[in-house]
């Protein structure tokens, strides 16, 4: 082991060499896993070359990332030569979730959320592979059995006004995400989740009111999970999703269970875990059987996105086609879940579009330019019909930012730099009101690519605007990630 006063962290250096990473690559990985702005790109050079020690919780975050990438445990003590202790508030996303799939088990999990409250200082680390699947394995393999309560949609003869108020508030919470992105209002939605959890934990409600509250709790948990995912807080998102899945299971709401599993699949695709995204997506498809055409189409579209992320082009084409067929032939006579408001034929087209661009960019990276060009152009055509040009007053601002960032990446890939810059300029303007690190990561990726193409007059003019917009976004406004440097 290196001497304690060494001016070079040999352990960190060896880990980076084994991965073929520069210190800047480590910083980028930390920012991707824990959110933009987590660490300055220059900080890991100081850690490696001058034996610098970052402040908590970065030592544990770094050990976690290196352990995940190397496939073996890298302890905090070993990595930093005993100069810092492990961070007790840094926990795996499934910590304390290993309860029975019963009402009692759900109540124990709800109690943890309630006691955490707004001052919960725990940071949850995303899990993957066997760890992620273990957290929901009893649901996936059927050993969880049926939930305790019979599904009920209608109110009883004496509806509880408090329960009705919770239900009526759900669409308004969804609007917050659509208009402003996940990072801006996640603390508020999380507080609503805990408030409903407190009602459930206190008990004393009729069975009908309990069923309705559990379903509302699951819906808010799904929304909070999605918003945490949009905020790039992946561990917290998984924790919300798993809790919401357990709640939906207790009222035997298979459609909501399918929706949550599909969200988890989509998240795994964005985290570049292709095996997880396919496993979760296929589980969502099985859970959606018997659901409305819209629910099945939504789940299939997420599975298709997962196939695209895994490079399974044939499966992607087949599954996206099935989703499109379901949404185009639906009768309109089915009673849709209240959370199914967002799905339209255009939404599916756009999701197919950025999935195609993702596939095409991968093909370009593998040297298959002809296939890549065809996929990117098809994706651009589909995505071009979407929300990327809606006005600032439109309620779909987060979607507009995300789709605009993807479309700009598509045109950059196909060499249409003027069009790429034009679309990205509109997307950057949305950063004034939308806090969506998931979307901003795409713009950061675009900035990296445009820096290599500054001979283009369009890039030369626009790139400073893009970099300034990203700089302001990272440094100001609600929901930003605090920078924890060396």
Mind explaining what this structure looks like?
The chain has 486 residues and is mainly alpha-helical. Among the domains are: 10-88; 96-123 and 132-252, no CATH class. 65% of the residues lie in helices and 1% in strands. Helix 17 (345-365) packs parallel to helix 19 (397-413). The chain is globular and about 65 Å long.
Could you write a compact summary of the structure shown?
This is Carph-isopro domain-containing protein. By secondary structure, the chain is mostly helical.
Distance between the termini: 22 Å
Major beta-sheet overview: 2 strands, parallel
Helix content range of the residues, please? 55-70%
Which series of helices and strands comes N to C? HHHHHEHEHHHHHHHHHHHHHHHH
**What is the mean pLDDT?**
90
- The count of DSSP E runs of length 2 or more, i.e. the number of strands, is 2
Briefly note the structural class of the backbone: mainly alpha
Shape: globular
Strand content: under 5%
Biggest sheet strand order reads 1-2
Radius of gyration: 23 Å
Number of helical runs?
22
Unreliably modeled segments: 1-5, 477-486
